[in-house]
Amino acid sequence: MAVRRAGPVAVLILTAVVVVAAWVSWFLGGLTFADAADDSYLLTNSAQALTFTTFGALVLAHRPGHRIGLLFVAYGACYTLSVACLGLLTDAFGLPEGWARAVELLGITVWIPAPAVCLPLIVQLFPDGRPLSRRWRPLAVATLAVLPLAPIPTLPVAAGPAGDGPATEEPMLPVIVGEVAQRLIPVFAAVAALVLLASLGALVLRVRRSHGVPRQQLMWLLWAVGLFAALNAQRIVTTDGPVLFLLTLPLIPAAATVAILRHGLYDIELIVNRSLVYGVLTLGVVLAYLGIVAGLSALARDRLSAAPLIATAVVALAFAPARSAVQSLVDRVMYGQRRDPVAAAARVGLRLGAGLDGVLRAVCEALRLPYAAVASDGRLVATYGRSPRRRHTVSLEVADGPPADLLVGLRAGESRLSGADRRALELLAAPVGLALQAVRLSEQLGESRTRIVAAREEERRRLRRDLHDGLGTVLTAVTLKADAAHNLRHTDPERSARLLLDLRADLTAAIADIRRLVYNLRPPALDELGLLGALRQRAHDSWRREHAGYVVTIDAPDDLPPLPAGVEVAAYRIATEAVTNALRHGGATACRVSLRADHAALHVEVSDNGSGGAGAWPHGVGLRSMHERAGELGGTLTAGPTDRGGRVHARLPLEQT
Q1: d(CA 269, CA 256)
Q2: Phi-psi domain of 587 (left: phi exceeds 0; alpha: psi -120 through 50; beta: other)
Q3: Residue 530 near residue 558, CB atoms below 8 Å
């Protein structure tokens, strides 16, 4: 570890020694700090030399050989040499005129590769030191090709006399070289600008394509580049502007180093948010101040000396509401409507008709979230977006069915959701739960329709089989016997009479089959006696006769409301099937059938005093039939043992009028 860090530390120490020596020489030569901070660029160059080298050494100490760290060190080395040249030009050294001119030319040339070559490469290769793709490698080659062209801006100076010196001074290069270089300066500037713009385009494209940690790292560099460009917009456009604003350039290596080594140390989303808020506020305050002062001065025609004070008061009074408005606008752009959860819920509610997928998309759009999903029973019911590494879970309240959760992905750079996000999600859970309930009801409706169709087809198949194999065979035999009896009525009257008697017996059997088929479709007793009367007749006639000693009690009020035909048949079939199962399998001696009706449903309960079984009842044909009959009407059925015997309870919804 110590050996690995020795090189970066040595480079950093050497840079610091050179910078300190230059400043000592500067002050010993009789120059002041104001001179260093003015047009000499000693202050800004020293800051860039120290910061870029420091951050480059830091990256290389933790990531040996990392290209971004090497480029930072190279950038710092260019400015370190420039600072060294500025230190040598003071009276403390007193260099001969020729040497002083050579050192000056070197000082104004050696820093050019830093912004023209190193900075574009940093933007292109960040954060892993590789180009965006193979197709972007030619841009890196073109950037390196700018390096030999770096002396072009200073060659005209070398080919002519010193800036303030006499015209008779001997030029350092032939005049023709200066003239050619003078014509190439616009070409060099255009090439450097195109390379830098292409590098920024690659950075923006890389941000758009990235996700997770790489996107979080890129946001750091993008924030630093954006802040530097905003503060130095005048210099970028006109090549002139406040020199001290160049001190913001070290933000780029600082942000890049944090992104490479500790990208999760700070919330980059929050930093970008606050930067936008206070950047817009600062610009607004400056413009408002200048506008008010200019307006008042024009109105008073220079007689109103209190114009600056009035402008300051107006700006101070407007700052708080302006900050609130700007903060709200920036939050809406970055975080959606999390500060107005009611509006977010209304937006999600409008998508209920689009299904669960549309609701999840509305949740992501309302809160600017990258991912949303609903999970139930260990499976994802619906998803929207790309699942990130970090997620937040919110429980959903669903009326029926298993519990479910709303899963949302955290935004890039977030380790957890804020309190405002959590409060908004708790409110949004209600429409998401409604959408999930609608999906479940739709699925249940589809399953119910499938069961109804299957039951209908099965009933048709059974009727066809009974009619074809039973009644059809009997009627065919009746036809043949009728023909035989007709043919024998004169030749063999006795046999004809016997055939007619057989014919009567066959017809009696056919009538019995028809009654059985009709009874299976709908028991006639329901139409003659009603549900309560039919059950009492069955209890008195069939169950008592078939099972001596077995008591079936019908408990129901006499004023049952009029029941739909489907409810009557389902209640009768469920009750008779439950009693039959208790007789055959429960070992009971008594059974009670209870009927109760409320405004919404008919409740059918069959309880017996049998053993009931040790565990849950197996789903045989009878129990499955009862479940299907209740499900066809949208009702529910529970069946199983109790501590007093067996119990079957069905809830059959009544039609609402």
Answers
A1: 15
A2: left
A3: no
pTM of the model: 0.50
Q: At what angle do helices 42-62 and 251-262 cross, to 10 degrees?
A: 10
Q: Give the number of C-alpha atoms closer than 13 A to the C-alpha of residue 506, restricted to the C-beta side.
A: 19
Q: What's the pLDDT at 72?
A: 93
Mean pLDDT of all residues in 415-438: 74
List beta partners, residue 592: 553, 607
Report the pLDDT value the prediction gives residue 330, as an integer from 0 to 100: 53
Lookup: tokens for 370: 């990258």
d(CA 280, CA 349): 34
In one letter, which amino acid is 611? S
C-beta neighbour count of 13 within 10 angstroms: 12
Secondary structure class of 522 (helix, strand, coil): coil
Q: Fill in the amino acid letter for 297.
A: S
Q: In sequence order, what are the beta bridge partners of 590?
A: 551
Name the token pair of 589: 């001696």
Q: Give the pLDDT confidence score for residue 342 in this predicted structure.
A: 59
The span from the CA of 566 to the CA of 458, in Å, is 18
161: exposed, middle or buried (Cβ count in 10 Å: 0-12, 13-18, 19+): middle
- 8 A C-beta contact, residue 631 and residue 451: yes
Give pLDDT tens digits for 172-216: 777 787 788 888 888 888 898 899 899 988 888 888 887 767 777
Written as one letter, the residue type at 426 is E
CB 229 within 8 A of CB 123: no
Residue 604 β-bridge partners: 595, 650
| Nearest C-alpha neighbor of 231 from the set 214, 245, 219 | 245
- Where b means 16+ CB within 10 Å and e means fewer, 211-220 reads eeebbbbbbb
* Conformation bin of residue 301: beta by default, left when phi > 0, alpha when psi is -120 to 50: left
∠ CA 178-115-65, rounded to 5°: 125
Q: State the distance between the two ends of the chain, measured CA to CA, in whole angstroms.
A: 84
Greatest distance between any 2 Cα atoms in the chain: 160
* Least confident segment among 72-76, 538-542, 648-652: 538-542
Closest CA to 152 of 118, 189, 114: 189
In sequence order, what DSSP letters do the residues of 186-238 get, joined into one string?
A: HHHHHHHHHHHHHHHHHHHHHHHH--HHHHHHHHHHHHHHHHHHHHTHHHHHH
Instruction: Please tell me the number of Cα atoms within 13 Å of 170 on its side-chain side.
Output: 5
Q: Name the residue with higher pLDDT: 339 or 426.
A: 426
Q: Are 192 and 146 in contact (CB under 8 A)?
A: yes
